[in-house]
Design goal:
By secondary structure, this protein is mainly alpha-helical. The protein has helices spanning 2-7, 12-16, 22-39, 43-50, 54-68. It is globular and about 25 Å long.
Length: 69
Amino acid sequence: MKGECGRKRTYFEGLCKGNRRGEIRRAYSEIAERLIKELGMSLTGVARLLDVSTSTISKMLQRRAEEKG
């Protein structure tokens, strides 16, 4: 996760505190997608890890899918 944050020029601490600025939101969604697809984590597990609701994770993934077309 720290590598992803560095790539996005954000701070790991900002993610942990639940900051919702645009760039951090994108990092959240990328991290969530990778945790689910690559590690097989559940939506609930990812939500707990990122300190957001399960519905937030679901919405993030829907937006990412729409952006990809």
